[in-house]
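Journal club side-thread
Mid-discussion, someone asked how the predicted structure for our own chain would compare to the paper's figures. Pasting it here so we can look after the session.
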Amino acid sequence: MKWSELLLPTLKEVPSEAEAISHILMIRAGLIRKLTSGVYSYLPVGLRVLFKVENIIRQEMNKKGAQQLLLPAIQPAELWQKSGRFDALGQDMITFIDRHKKLNVLGPTHEEVITSLVKNEVNSYRQMPLILYQIQTKFRDEARPRFGIIRSREFIMKDAYSFDRDIEGLGKSYDKMYDAYCRIFTRCGLKFLPVEADTGIMGGDVSHEFMVLAESGEDKIAQCEQCLYAASLDKAECLPGQETRDKTQDTRKEVPEEVSTPGVSSVEQVAEFLKISVDHLVKTMIYLADGKPVAVLVRGDHEINEAKLSKVLKVTKLEMANSAVIEKATKGPMGFSGPIGLNDIDIYADYAVEAATNVVVGANKLNTHTQYVDIVRDVKIKKFADLRCITEIDKCPRCGAGIKIEQTIEVGHVFKLGTKYTESLGATFLDEQGKANSIIMGCYGIGVTRIIAAFIEQNFDENGIVWSKELAPFQVIIMPLNTADEQSMEIAESIYNQLMEQNIEVILDDRDVRAGIKFKDADLIGIPLQVIIGQKNIIKNIIELKVRRSSQREEVAIDDAINKIIELI
């Protein structure tokens, strides 16, 4: 490919709307262009990288015996209503009514569709195990699209689905996909970490996320400083007895006492007003759990983990209660909720609250709190459980060592779904005895487009992207510094044609621009090997090779150039 014939618009300036380094560099290097919020066009160079990622995924999936298909992006809403997920996705789901007055969904994922397909085509144990996958565009109406293609409204995913007759078979399929994912991310050049994860609205009881460490990542993981334990914050365990506050200052009182706290309601404000630390307060949060109000208690310095809370409550829809619900449930104003006297709703409390004595809670009265509270003595708790987010003060739930919290980008997620979808959609098979059983499913997703951004977040310098050989849009860029010089162009064209004949991906920068522009653009785009052809070196019968990642330069004889280029790439 010759640059003069390629749509490759590079930019000097940092785009005003871009925050993440991957977003900045993908726009500046001419990989993508924004159409509207969260929606991007892939330009030719960006598409070349995308194809590289897809090919790696396809190769590794095929090696595991998975079969590729393509499922519709338009899905009837009734499938989602049958599975119970239509309301769960809420406003993230993009829907429309067609001319036949039927409600449809632009597929955010394809569990319902694949289950419907398999229901009609697989009916015997002899047809399993079966793994099917696709590479398809997905649609989600993100509330805050950001970071370019890391969180967008239209994106490409690889999703695979396994179908087995029993849990043992699911385990084998899950292990196959887990291993394939490790191979895929390794080949893509990512530094990644598999972590235990919450299954969320996908369902099932076992899942792992594949996370890429990156400062601009939206997700966080908890990782042990010594053992191999790692988990998403939604999943990371906080074991009973991990209280971290110093209780030596506690003085147990026989009965709680109300105290006036005029004009203060937040944890920080109340702590400052009463001259106590925030871990001597207990927050009372009111939620609607499948429409029913519940109270949840956590220490003032902790945050409620809604994923954990949903599992403990065994509900599909969890949301913070509004002021009207809070006032009805607590008989008091929003901002001053407390657990004492809440006789009409269930109260759940985090493990760290179980040993809390002499703490402060809301009094369910305006400008009033209650102090000297002993949670076990004074509050009727329905259940103590792990309901909070882990912190760096906590200990590893496996070995007791320290925990560190790190920013990450999720690039893959695998689930053991079990029969969540096959039961609701009626996908069964007949076993050897002719008995009907629900098919056992697994689900395995990769953010194809997100891999590109994640790679850039880990592979860049002050000059631009630093591609690996596996993902680079081209392996070699040839740069004649003076295109008006016939000899320079003859050498450039000769090297270009010879590399093309050997099926090496090469681009010839034949633009009539200053050498400095060519150097900056080559570094910005990040092609692994630069072939620099200058008139001064031609006189000495040499050209210069520069390795982008190391910036190592080497002068080679023109006659030896092809062999050396092939050696380096």
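Post-session note: The chain has three domains: 49-71+109-237+405-456, 257-385, 476-568.
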